[in-house]
Amino acid sequence: MGDLFNYSPVDLSPDDFWSLIGGFAFLVGLKLAADDSPHLPSYYGLIFSLSSGMFVFWVRYYH
Q: Is 46 a member of any domain?
């Protein structure tokens, strides 16, 4: 099995593709944090957005 992070299904470089996925996940995490519903507290969204931001940095600079 090849390296998943060298794969891009669209006409982008793999680093750009995975950074786009991570950026989208970051925005979803911010949306979850802003909603702050009783069944999903805001800190779950903050944790999700911070971890996806760390994923983007990992793909960009350390992969």
A: no
How far separated are the first and last CA of the chain, in Å rounded?
17
CA atoms of 10 and 43, how far apart (whole Å): 33
Number of domain units in the chain: 1
The model's pTM: 0.78
Q: How many residues does the chain have?
A: 63
CA distance 10 to 48: 25
Question: Is the pLDDT score of 29 beyond 70?
Answer: yes
User: Please, where are the H alpha helices in the chain?
Assistant: 14-35, 42-57
Bridge partners, residue 40, by sequence: 37
Which residue bears the tokens 């949306």? 31
3: phi then psi, degrees, rounded to nearest 5: -75, 120
